[in-house]
Amino acid sequence: MLGAALALGLAAGMQAAFGQQGKTPPEENFHAQCIGCHGIPGYKTAFPIVYHVPKIAGQQPAYIENALKAYRSGERSHPSMRGIAASLTDERIKQLAEFYGAPAK
After folding, report:
1. Which run of H or of E encompasses 98?
2. Measured distance CA(32)–CA(25) in Å, rounded
3. Looking at the predicted structure, is the pLDDT value of residue 17 above 50?
4. Dihedral, CA atoms, 33, 9, 44, 104, nearest 10 degrees?
5. Is residue 85 classed exposed, middle or buried when 0-12, 13-18 and 19+ CB atoms within 10 A define those classes?
6. How far is the C-alpha of 62 from the C-alpha of 103, rounded, in Å?
7. Considering the entire predicted model, what is its pTM?
8. CB 79 within 8 A of CB 47
């Protein structure tokens, strides 16, 4: 219960921050699955090993899209990311990349 409340709080905060940049999520809270790990500055996960979780907001959209597709195909091997990416369609991957990605220059 506490974890869900924390995730919702983080999602609301991140949505407000992205909203200030003029970006709209592909659908309400669709991006929340990413915020739990990638939205916490300095966050480290302990599965499968202690690993620093990178910030994704501001990355180039093509990088995010390619990384998610590589996790989905197994080319990249982090188990949690592979499981998440496996559930995403190409369109959802593109939407997430555009939402979190840096504006094109």
Report:
1. helix 90-100
2. 10
3. no
4. 60
5. buried
6. 11
7. 0.68
8. yes
Q: Note the pLDDT tens digit of each residue in 79-94.
A: 889 999 999 999 999 9
**Longest Cα–Cα distance in the chain:** 42
Average pLDDT value for residue range 13-26: 46
Beta-sheet pairing, 51-52 with 44-45:
antiparallel
Cβ–Cβ < 8 Å for 56, 64: yes
- Phi then psi for 45, rounded to 5 degrees? -100, 155
What Rg do the C-alpha atoms of the chain give, in angstroms?
13
Q: Are 56 and 93 in contact (CB under 8 A)?
A: no
